[in-house]
Model the fold of this input.
Amino acid sequence: MAQLLEYKCPSCGASLQFDSGSQQVVCPYCDSSFTPQSLIDYDAFLKQDAANEHSETWEKKPEEWAKDEASGLNVYVCSACGGEVLGDDTLASARCPFCDNTVIMKRQFTGEWKPDLVLPFKLDREHAKEAFKKHLFGKKLLPKAFRSQSNIEEIKGIYVPFWLFSSDVQTNIRYRGSRSRSWSDGKYDYVETSNYALLRGADAHFERIPVDGSMKMNDALMDSLEPFDFSEAVDFQTAYLAGYFADRYDVDAEKSVARAKNRFVNTLDSVMSQTTAGYSSVSRETTTMSEHNNRREYALLPVWLLHVRWKEKLYTFAMNGQTGKFVGNLPFDKSRYWKYWLLYALAFGGGLAGLVILLHYLGLGGGCL
Amino acid sequence: MKRTLSLLLIAILLLCPLFSARADDSAYIATDTYLFSSEATERLNARAEEIGQERGVAVYFFYMKAATDLIGFTKDYAVTNVAESDAIILGLNDTLYYFYAKGETAGKIFTESAKDALWTAFASITGDNEGKVRAYLDAADEMLEEYFAAGVVTATEEPTSEPTEEPTPAPTQMPPVSYTKDGKLTVVDSAGLLTAEQVTALSGRLAEIGEKYRCDVIVATVPSLGYKTAEEYADDFFDYNGYGYGAVPDENGTTINGDGILLLLSTEDRDFAVSTSGYGIKAFTDYGIQTDLEAAFLPYLRDNRWYEAFNAYADRCDWLLNTARKGKPYDVGYYLNGVAVAIAAIAGLLLAFIPVNAMKRQLTVVYEKKNADEYLTRDSFHLTQNTDLLLGTHTSRSVHVEPERSSGGGGFGGGSSTHTSSSGGTHGGHSGKF
Done:
């Protein structure tokens, strides 16, 4: 009945962290490293031994949980330092802001909330910082001050909850298309139009379409981090969470399904309409779809989140913790935009006008120059 | 011997009239200033001789600038130069005219009012010196014919007063008109649209231009085109009257492909035609004629301001010939098309947005994904149905309309279009209504 999990180094007792480089759980103080599986075994072993100890901690916990009804915030108490960790209903793991200890709210991972798989972090915090710098590079319309004056307020490594949908989709679409040909016999012009019903059907398999399961996380931002390589996915173990934040899902699977469906319908439509080449004015009339062998998986995917403050505005960037893809929208410097435009306008306008004048004096261009 | 000599004498005496007649041939028309070409003089003389021989009363004409005492000179002239006993003489100096009827018959026929009628005929033609004299000859011929046919000249009264002894003032009646290098009139005003002074000035101007550019620049007016089109009339006028700088006329006086440009007007039909020939075809392009030349003189023609119209014509011919001489005849595309430059510049301004917007797009990389293309397992896609059903066919029909063909107006392609005239020569130009 452990509510909060904290992984302690078996050697020195310090807080453990999952190291993305080695894909193992390491102790930053005594440099020992452990595979997640060995930790679990050790933990189980410890549980038998220190059941009382843990239960004390657990028993304490319920008393000290305070639920702030109005704002939906929960207060967790760090067992290492006693500091208070604030989190909403979905917070599943966090680092104590005082002692940096990882606090895992085990409850968030029970029952229906148990993730099916997790993609471990492969890239670390430094990588995220580097990627951010690279992201700013070469953006000509970025205000100069952004690079120098912006500061990264926060870099968080967070496991974002995702729904993964896989399905064998069977679809039938009926299109209406037409073909026409025209000719003339000198007296009349003729146009012959033939209307066709174009019946198309296809089977296709979609594998693990990700849909962001956290209301907090911006869907577009998460979409932009795609693709994730699921071949590196592992079964969920809380050990992987050490050192990172995590949330559980709060978007129901049913709602997420709609988004996934929308996406694969669009894909099927575009693939199918390619088969209607040769017809003009093609329009989709009816669509029928059935899905079989639906599989729904709940996954935790690694994301580095950066919050940057500049000129009183908050900018959010994200990096795919597995592939390193860095995304985020940057501010736009209007005056620079127009300055560049002027430059190009003078170059192109002058160039083209000069060309016209040159052609005139060379005697080319016939009667229009 | 005696017989031979007397035969010779008789022969000579018989032949004398012939000689004297020939001597008289050139004396019907006499001028001390160049008023018309020698061919014109010949023609007039032939006409005058014709009249004299048919009617028995000779018709004489002279223009002597030097004759300050016109009456005295005329009377002397009547004695010394006029062989016939009856004759009517019209004498002019540069400011006065005087009619003198020599002999009784002539005196009876040519009364004061008859003389007035003769003067009217003479004065009615302007710009064509030969035409004036011819009109006088024809009028006199008519009167003589009437008299001898009916015995009396119509519209005459018995002379009640002494014939006037004073010559009548008629300044600049026969102004010196200017001619082309080949001696052709540069202004032929058969429709009588210009005054004498205007003709002098205009013909001088046109002759000057023609000489400068070695290209005849002509203006002709006619009352009516008859059965010909304006284009035909102008082409024929140019060719059959022997126009064209440097062109050699054949035995009929026709020239082909000489260098020149002619503006012809017909006042009754209100048609005009510009006809070019030889170098004129090159120097006056379709574009130049229709947008420059016509634009200059047509507005004046429409207002019946003839003199201004012809002057504008002369000005533009001067400029167009000058431009052509410099190497590039005025044609489409002569002036840099400002619109083209403006469009090019604006296109450049718009094109500039392309790279700048590309730079802007760099900043926004976050997008919601609309499809699941990457999640479609490649080999799993199978098309299970691919059927096309024909639902129906229908045919619509519309009347065929020939696409509009733009002609003239903005359709200049440059250069000059030409046609062949009845003389066989090639002419360019343009005609129309005013």
User: Anything to note?
Assistant: Chain B has a mean pLDDT of 85. Chain B is about 45% helix and 20% strand. The radius of gyration of chain B is 37 Å. The first strand of chain B starts at residue 29 and ends at 31.
